[in-house]
């Protein structure tokens, strides 16, 4: 199935809150790995003097409870079906995982991962934030199966 490109985005703007919060999670299919070519998040803060937000991308977080969010194909003409799934709007945070990228970002800007990230079959890639003040945000993963 190599070459089938997909995107997973948040369905709406979510508030970061002021505690550690997972915004979006990409789940690789059980039978194949995927490569996340781009992970990005944007913030809609209003203060130019606000403190920065910690943005983390973690591999292999487990558990958690959220709303299923299905990825869509970037090239609609591809005949393959995407197997990856997604989760957003967590009511119970996932746990564990390994931080693969971490940056402090101003709440009036955004962040895009600097390189591709391989996700093993059945594992997850999660965008998590820690903000000193609640800020609306949107996140996205572009990937290839």
Model description:
- By secondary structure, this protein is an all-beta fold.
- The protein has a single domain, classed as Jelly Rolls, CATH 2.60.120.
- Helix content is 0%, strand content 52%.
- The chain contains no helices and 13 strands.
- The chain has strands spanning 5-9, 14-15, 21-27, 34-43, 53-59, 65-68, 72-73, 85-92, 98-105, 110-112, 117-119, 124-130, 136-144.
- The strands form two sheets. Strands 1, 2, 4, 7, 10, 11 and 13 form a seven-stranded antiparallel β-sheet that branches.
- It is globular, with a radius of gyration of 15 Å.
Search tags:
13 strands, mainly beta, Jelly Rolls, 6-stranded antiparallel sheet, 145 residues, single chain, 7-stranded antiparallel sheet
- Residues in β-strands, percent: over 45%
Oligomer category: single chain
Q: If you average the pLDDT, what whole number results?
A: 93
State the end-to-end CA separation.
Answer: 6 Å
CATH C-level category: Mainly Beta
Write the CATH fold name.
Jelly Rolls
Assign the CATH architecture: Sandwich
What order do the helices and strands follow? EEEEEEEEEEEEE
What structural category arises from helix and sheet content?
mainly beta
Shape: globular
Gyration radius, in Å: 15 Å
In short:
With 145 residues, the protein is an all-beta fold. The chain contains no helices and 13 strands.
Task: Map the helices and strands.
Blueprint: E1 5-9, E2 14-15, E3 21-27, E4 34-43, E5 53-59, E6 65-68, E7 72-73, E8 85-92, E9 98-105, E10 110-112, E11 117-119, E12 124-130, E13 136-144
Antiparallel strand pairs: 1-7, 1-13, 2-13, 3-8, 3-12, 4-10, 4-11, 4-13, 5-9, 5-12, 6-8
